[in-house]
Structures are given as structure tokens and as C-alpha cells.
Amino acid sequence: MLKNFRKKVKQWFEQEDRTSQITNNNKWEEIKRSDHGVDTRVSYQYPTKRSFPFPLDKDNEPTIRRAVRTNERSTNIPDKSPNIVEQPFVFEKPERSQPFRASDVPSPVYGFQQRRMTVDLEEIPAFIRKENREESFMMHHEENITISANEEIETEEKIWSDQEVQVDNRLPAVLANKEELESNANHSNEMITDEQSVTTRQKDMEPGYKQVTKKDPQEIKKDPFNVRMRPSDKKRFYQTNQDRKKIDHTRPQLHLLDDTNEKTTYDEAWIKEQGEQLKHTLEQFQVRANVINAMQGPSVTRFEIQPESGVKVSKIKNLSDDIKLNMAAKDIRIEAPIPGKNAIGIEIPNKTSQAVGLQEIFKSNAFRMAASSLSVGLGLDITGRTVVTDIKKMPHGLIAGATGSGKSVCINSILISLLYKANPSDVRLLLIDPKMVELAPYNEIPHLVSPVITDVKAATHALKWAVEEMEDRYKRFVESSTRDIERYNQKVEHAGDKMPYLVIVIDELADLMMAAPQDVEDSICRIAQKARACGIHLLLATQRPSVDVITGLIKANIPTRIAFSVSSQVDSRTIIDTNGAERLLGRGDMLFVENGARTPLRIQGAFVSDDEIERVTNFVRKTAPTNYLFEQEQLLQQMEEENEDELYPEALAFVLENNSASTSLLQRQFKIGYNRAARLIDSLEQNQVISGQNGSKARTVLMRNEEVIR
């Protein structure tokens, strides 16, 4: 009995397993036949055959058969790929209703626009062309944004339509994944909302609407909407924008300067002719030498002469006037020998000199890569290389030359370089201009510590203020245990107490030396001796390079010199301790002796016009307000107070009390000398306390105690 029951139970389980296996096989065959494009999925089937865990005692109990659950799948799933009916291609030849006309071919440079003439570009200033280019770029950028917005709308519509087709085709197959379907529906709703917002933006940006401003392209470009930024990224992005804004608002742009003229081509024929003539001239004087090289600069061309063995260098140097005569040159300069070469340099003026613009200097890598805020561009040397120097390394400079040789232009180029390189918080300027007109355009710029000083007495007192400032800075160095201004600024950087550099520019030293030679010389020597470490630098310019103006103390403490054209060898030796400045051509031709250099370097100085200075200074005035430390009137008033004698109040009270005044009376009363008593009497007369001298009669007291008190 028990065996029969076990046999029936076993048959029942085997029949159920066969039924489920047949059902599963039919289901997979239907899925494979219905759609081959369905994504691959993984199904897990666990075994259902297992041994019966316990015996049953009921033998006669009828077998209960449960209905087999089958997962029915709809077979009416439409095919994903639509039925495409191929149609035969019919070529129809277009009919020409109009005669043949050549189509416009866009230029790779100008497109469909007309080519601009170079004459029009030369007539328009550089800074105006810069503004026009910026406006045209903004308008072109707006059109590109409108086109890109339309393309985004079309792309999103196409994506949305494709997603709708995919959802409709797969809807019966993914009924079990309701959550995934709901998330897709929510995503599609979000895309519809984005599409509507983009559509509204596109309508606002159509040409018919005038709501687009020039700031919109920059905002769309700089504000990412689909990028997740970490806090550190946001901080770095914010600091970069702040630094960019600070640079844009404090540094002038290059388009404020005039465009540089086109450089003249290298005149090989003229150079070859001059070289042959120079060699022929030397042969006439029995000098055996060969021309081995020639370098053409902006204003002069240097021929390198290599003498044969046995020829003295002094013999060639003594032939300078003869070479000048045979070459028909304005003036020549002989550099014998050239440092680092076994050759002698003979510099001959070019047929036409070329002007050097300040914009060309500022565009060079030497100026742009200079890290110091006190870097200044001087000009181009004979080889055409940009010469850039650092005022920190000078640390003080002397500029001298005859009238009209280019001293004031050199000072202007140095000041414009400082305005381009330094902020008002980094460099401050003290300008002293006894001529009253040379440095007047720099008034009211934020770099000044005071207005441009034009009075000689105020200039003397301003130099004394600079000496006091130097002493005060050294006291602060002692308190902070630092040695120079760079180390001090590194220590106090977190406190915001930054110490700026101070550059003192004196345009005409001879006028100051005539007014108060001893005071001016003492102040200049003290500043030149000690002020380098505390960040105070001197730039002196004079048109009278004589010994009484450039004294031995001043020249010994100022190592960097710039010599322009002078009239004699004596003046040249006074400036640069050697001959050569008397051979210069003028108009910016200079000899530059840097600190530590033994030989002078010939440079064609950069030219800056009055219009360029005005444009740059007007731009700088708008960046920051002025912050004067003192003014010229305050200096004059302070000088008057210092010149007043300490005994003047006591002498005034004594004269009013005795109702009489004389020099001998003040001498006896205050026990002073005749000169001091006479100065007190003159001060009382100037202030209308006593009357003037009237022969042998005594002076009359004109004021009373009540009037003085009032």
C-alpha cells in the first residue's frame, strides 16, 4: 500500500515538472520570435526536483492536482522596425528657367564681405578700431547663440520623438517594470519643460525682439548649468574672476597706444656698398682689415671689422674723422674692441632712421614676462632686441643730455611703463618738475603721493620728507626683524599693511641745485646711500651735465647712467666716465650704462606722444581715486613755520611792553648776536608790528596788546 502511494506521489511531481518545463520553453520561443531588438536580460531558474522530506501515513487520500500557473505573453507585439517600401529612384533633370550665373565663393579670410583697404585702417586710431571690433564681436556672438539655441531645440525634439517611439514599442514588454517606466515618464516631462523654456528664450532672442543685451553672451558662456562644482572649485573660480576683474580695471590696455609703423626692409644693397667703401677707406690708410659682419638697427648699422695680425687698435680709432669724411656720414662711433669678440665695431647712421613705438616694446616677450612691478622698457638696441631694465636693480638712475636730445621722452616712457606694470598699492610716485609743464599730464593719477611739485622750495622740503620716510621705514624693519622691503611685505601680507615702492623723479636737477645746493645734495646723497633696501629709488634728469650739478657725491652713489647726445667729451665723461656720448645722433639715441656694466650699450629710445600720455593717464584716473599724503601748499606752510625764530613770540611781547624796538635792545635783552636780532626786527616789520627804518629816528610801534590778542 505504502509503495503504491509513493509511486503515485512521485508520478505527480514528475508530471508537474514536465509541464512547467514545457511552458518555459514555449515562453522563450515566443520571446525570440516576437522581437529580436529587445535588450538582453538574465533570468534565473531554480531547481524544483527535491527528495520528499517525510513519509505520509495516509494511503487512500485522493491526489489533489493544482492548476499550473502559466505566464501568458501577448503575441500581438508590433514590430519595432517599420515596413519600408523601396521605391525606384527617378532622376529628373532640373529645368533652367534663368541663364547661368556664377555663384559667390566665400573668401577664407573675409568671407562674403568686401576686403578692407589699408588706407582706411591707417586713418582710424588703434583704440577706436579696438572698440569697433569688440562691438562687432558681441553682435556676432549673439547671432551664434541664437543659431545654437535653435539647433538645441531641434536636437531635443528629435530625441523626444525617438524616445516616444521606443516607449510605445516596448510598452507591452516591460509591464513588470512599472517603476522604470514612471521614471522615464518623469524624465520626459522634464525635457518638455526644458524644451518650452528654451523655446521662450529663443523667441526672446529673435531679431524682432530687442531684449538681448551685450551681457547675455558672457553670462551664458561663463555660468555652467549642468556642471557640479565642489566648494574648492567654486572658490578657485571666484578668485580667478576677481583677479581678472582687478587686472582689467587697474591695468591700461595696449590699444591706448599708437600702432607701430611698418618696419623698413633690410637694405642689403646699401649695407654691401657701405661695407666695400669702408674696406676701401681702410686700405687707403694702410690698414689691413676685413668686414666680417654687419647688423642694422633702428637708427645705425654696425660693421664688425677684424684687423689682421700686427694692426694696432689705436690706429683704427684715430681714423674716426677720416672714415667719417670718406663715408659721408653724419657721425660715426667706434667701439674698439667689441666685448666678447675679436672685432672692432664701427657704427654708421642709416639712410633713414626708424622710430620705435612704445606699443612695440610692451608687446615684446621681454617686457610681458618681466615679473617685477618696477620693470621699464627703454627701447631697441643695435640688433633689434628689446631692452628692459628693472628699477630695483638700478637702484638709482641719472639721465643727462643736451636740450632736445630726448631726456623728457625717456622719463615719459619710464612713467608709462610703470603705469602699465604696477598698481597704486605696489608703486607710488613723487614727481618734481621745476619746468612746470613736462610732468603736468600726470596730475591726479592714483599713483602719486602728492600733486606734481613745481616750486623749488617745496621740492627741497619734499626731498627732506623722503629722507624722513626712509628713516621711518627702517624703524619698521627693525620692529619686524626684516632686512628689506620684500621680506617685510611677506610678513605683513596677512595684515594688509603692505609697504609700496616709492620712485622719486626729478626732471631738472640743475634748477634745484641753483636754489639750495647744499640741502638738495645732502638729501639726494642720503637717499642714494641708504634707500635701496627700503624701496625708495631716485631718477634724476638734467640738461647741464657739469661738475657743479652732478657732483662727485651724487655720481658716486648713482651707478646707473643714461647719456644722450652732448656737446663735448668732457660732458660725456662727466655722465658715463668715458667718451662716446658726443658722437650720438640725438632724437632718442642713448648710451645706457647699467649697474655693474663696464661698457655702455647703445639704444634707440622709445617715443611716446602727448596723445598717448593723455589717453593712458585718463584711463588710470578712472581706475582709483587719488590718495595724497601731502600737498605743495602744506610743504610751503610748514617751511614758513620752521623758518620762524623761536624767540619771535618773546620779542613781540617785549616790544609791545616797552613800546620801542631796536636791534641793540633785542641783543641786550635776549643775549643774541646782531644777525639774529636783525632778523627778528625784519620779521616784526614784515608783520606790520613796527614801522620801517626812518634814518636815525627810532622805529614806531604800530600795534597794541589788545590788537595782537584779537
From TrEMBL:
This is DNA translocase FtsK. Pfam families: FtsK_alpha, FtsK_gamma, FtsK_SpoIIIE. ATP binds at residues 401-408. Keywords: ATP-binding, Chromosome partition, DNA-binding, Nucleotide-binding. The keyword Nucleotide-binding applies. It comes from the Bacteria. GO terms for molecular function: ATP binding; DNA binding. The keyword Calcium does not apply. InterPro entries: AAA+_ATPase, FtsK/SpoIIIE/SftA, FtsK_alpha, FtsK_dom, Ftsk_gamma, P-loop_NTPase, WH-like_DNA-bd_sf, WH_DNA-bd_sf. Residues 384-573 form the FtsK domain. It comes from Natronobacillus azotifigens. Coiled coil: none annotated. GO terms for biological process: chromosome segregation. Belongs to the FtsK/SpoIIIE/SftA family.
